[in-house]
Amino acid sequence: MPREERLETGSAWIELSTTPDDWKAASPVLLGTMLAELHLIRAFEETVLELAGEGLVHGPAHSSIGQEGGAVGSIVGLRSTDGVNGSHRGHHQFLAKALTHVTGGVIDPAAAVTPKIQRVLQRTLAEILGLAQGYCHGRGGSMHLQWFEAGALGTNAIVGGGVPMGAGNAWAQKHSGTTDLTISYFGDGASQIGSVLETMNLAAAWKLPFCFFIENNLYAVSTRVEEVTADTRLSVRGQGFGIPGWRVDGMDPLAVHLATEQAAERMRSGVGPAVIEAEVYRFFHQNGPYPGSAFGYRDKEEEAQWRARDPLDRVAREMIALGLIDEAGVASMRRQAQEAMTAATAELLEDDPDKAGKRRIRPDLWPDPGFVDVGVRGDASELESLTPLEPTKHEGPWRATKFVDAVAGVMDRRMATDDRIVVFGEDVHRLSGGTNGATKGLAKYGENRLVGTPISENAFCGLGGGMALDGRFRPVVEFMYPDFMWVAADQVFNQIGKARHMFGGDNPVPFVLRTKVAMGSGYGSQHLMDPAGIFATSPGWRIVAPSNAADYVGLMNAALALQDPVLVIEHVDLYGTADQVPDGDLDYVIPPGRAAIRRAGSEVTVISYLSMVNHCLEAIEATDVDAELIDLRWLDRASIDWDTITASVQKTNAVLIVEQGARGSSYGGWLADEIQRTLFDWLDQPVERVSGTEASPSISRVLERAAIARTEEVIAGLEKVRAAMGQRGASEATGNVPGASEATGNVPGASEATGNVPGASEATGGVN
Questions:
Q1: What gap in Å lies between CA 599 and CA 82, rounded to an integer?
Q2: Is 759 part of a structural domain of the chain?
């Protein structure tokens, strides 16, 4: 028989419950503040459900009624500089943090509603109703509540989506020399989500002051926790990462408070993160004013048992037993909270003149419709104080370099002059500069500024996003290959890209994401895509794609100065090429809206970026087409140089867009549509495109070459444009209508009604 020995993880797992002595020992001020916050939140939530029942809440109303004890117990003792974020069911967390902030954590139940508290209640309700005076100017609504001044980092509609962002805030707290901490709230469902578990690993490895607070209310929408996991002891989730866990009755706010105090002592001392599982119960369905029993997935007996444990009643009973309040005092607290909500509602609503007995939102409180896109990105005014330089016009001395050395060199220069910059990525701190040498020489800045990460793009990308929102650091995150953006898609697109706009447009998101296109390197379908088309059609991101070392320096400097998330795309074909940069300190910028004309011409405007710019030059030289070549440099909607494109198209009356990657996720498809819509009157023929095929490039050298575009495909594209010129000349001679598509008989522009791209050809063979 083998010998067996039972092993222990070495991480504490504690179930904490209160005794009568704990209630006696608790500060009367603490208990009174808890009671007040619980009642204010309860009255608030009841008002939200009432308004939802009247059809005045546009969207969901995820009530936290029944779960208030977890939020109040854990937040009432926090500092304003401590951070919290949460999930879609986060009104109670937001309110607990905001109320604690404006009161300093002290509320007298006998006179609870001060002007500051009244303002918090009204602004929060206004946000949920989608009104301009809300904390996010009405954009966030019920699920996206943020008030940075109070340490409320933002609630989140993606289950578990805010956890990596919260860890980023904790990273910033730790590395700013504070003893502050961050708590991220999520439910039983998120306890099984990859980004949460990845973040547990990061937080433990880097000893972050971060608490994973699990509000276990037993249900997702209607699915019970035991249906989705074999181990329903959610507080053990951290054991495999060396994180201690506390399990506590969330209907007992004092127990939650004491557990949080113990966990906070660990976090503030620099030892690392903690897990707290509070067992709570939402009294209503996932959304709206009806109990779960009305939908058949739980019974009334279960609901009654939990309602008998209401955290408001628990605190009131204990305070009455201790002689700290009486029944009349509790009733007074309840009445004050309800009156406060009546007053808040009166400021936002009025009688509906068209519907007797009905209320409506006051029309003057809605946001201006013109505000709809404000804050998707910033205005780039932060670049105005920096030195612009156009490398094509540089008349000073040059310095020879390899492209990849320019990549490392400009980052070295910026890290030397700006100690806020921190680089994250897999192996960036090893191999003499990562897998390609792009971080060569940066190890001298130490392990807290050049940070090698676990293989967990979701976690470390989201962590960088949280750091960016905090504002004390400028994260630069490297994805070794762009295809990995799909692994981190929630953080890249739902979180980082949308954060500024979603939370009202006021908070900058200074974040740089570096990655490389590796087509032609034999790395196959999952390692070498061009991400430009995906990012160009996703809100919030700026995109740069340099074709040479001098441009890279100016574009990266701009990216690191902007207050927006910027994708910096590189190409492996350029890394080893001999190149040059202006001699000097590499401090210049190439601002958004600055394309470069690499070759002047009169017959066709060729538009490209990255390594395909050189392939275009080769192709133009191989033909006698007099093409004008535009190197975009900036690719996103807000930054593209429409002045240069427009002037060229007005001269040539023809466009060929050239890119290397797959047709399906094409940047050129988006750009062709924009050109057709804005410059249609100047086009004598449909916009032509050169791209790869539909397939992802394969490992086989032959199949990989067949799947991507290079010089030969550009030559074919130029020949196609020239042939169309000849056909146009012939049609004009016979009196046909210029621009009409003879191949399909379509009238250019008519296809906009069906969503098609007018004039964009869909031919195969790399040219479309």
A1: 55
A2: no
Contact 550, 580 (CB under 8 A): yes
Among the listed residues 165, 150, 147, the one whose alpha carbon sits nearest the alpha carbon of residue 503: 147
Place of tokens 């799947």: 707
Same domain? For 404 and 294 the reply is: no
- 18: which strand partners? none
- Helix axis angle for 91-103 and 115-128, nearest 10°, is 160
Q: Which residue shows structure tokens 């009624």?
A: 65
Tell the residue number behind the tokens 């962590």, with chain if given.
463
Say whether both 409 and 345 belong to one domain.
no
Residues in the chain: 768
**Residue 590 within any structural domain of the chain:** no
pLDDT tens-digit profile of 646-704? 999 999 999 999 999 999 889 999 999 999 999 999 999 999 999 999 988 888 999 99
Query: And the tokens for 700?
Result: 């086989």
Determine the structural domain holding residue 619 and report its residue range. 596-754
From CA 81, how far away is CA 218, in angstroms rounded? 31
The confidence band for 725, taking pLDDT boundaries of 50, 70 and 90, is confident
On whether both 615 and 727 belong to a single domain, the answer is yes
Whether pTM exceeds 0.70 = yes
Q: How many helices (H) and strands (E) does the chain have?
A: 23, 22
Q: How many structural domains are present in the chain? A: 3
C-alpha closest to that of 84 among 92, 509, 75: 75
Which domain CATH number covers 125? 3.40.50.970
* Predicted local distance difference test score (pLDDT) of residue 729: 64
Give φ, ψ of 94 to 5 degrees: -60, -50
Whether 527 is a known active-site residue: answer yes
Asked if 604 and 559 sit in the same domain, the reply is no
**Claim to verify: residue 719 and residue 616 sit in the same structural domain:** yes
Question: Tokens representing 279?
Answer: 């067992």
Helix (H, G, I), strand (E, B) or coil at 117: helix
Question: C-alpha distances in angstroms, 485 versus 25, 290, 606?
Answer: 52, 40, 29
Please name the residue that has the structure tokens 């060929």: 656
Residue with tokens 């910028």, as numbered in its chain: 589
How far apart, in whole angstroms, are the C-alpha atoms of residue 68 and residue 52? 20
Q: Which of 547, 582, 617 is the last residue of a domain?
A: 582
- The reply to whether 566 and 706 lie within a common domain is no
SS3 213: strand
For residue 470, give the amino acid letter: D
**pLDDT tens for each residue of 605-641:** 999 999 999 999 999 999 989 999 999 999 999 999 9
Are 542 and 377 in contact by the 8 Å Cβ rule? The answer is: yes
pLDDT digits (tens, 9 = 90+) for 108-165: 999 999 999 999 999 999 999 999 999 999 999 999 999 999 999 999 999 999 999 9
The strand pair at 398-402 and 578-582 is best described as antiparallel
Ramachandran class of 367: left when φ > 0, alpha when ψ lies in -120 to 50, beta otherwise: beta
In a domain, 3, yes or no: no
Task: Write down which residue in 549, 582, 615 finishes a domain.
Answer: 582
Please identify which of the residues 62, 92, 527, 571 carries the catalytic annotation: 527
Residues 6 or more apart in contact with residue 363 via CB below 8 angstroms: none
The answer to whether position 185 is within a domain reads yes
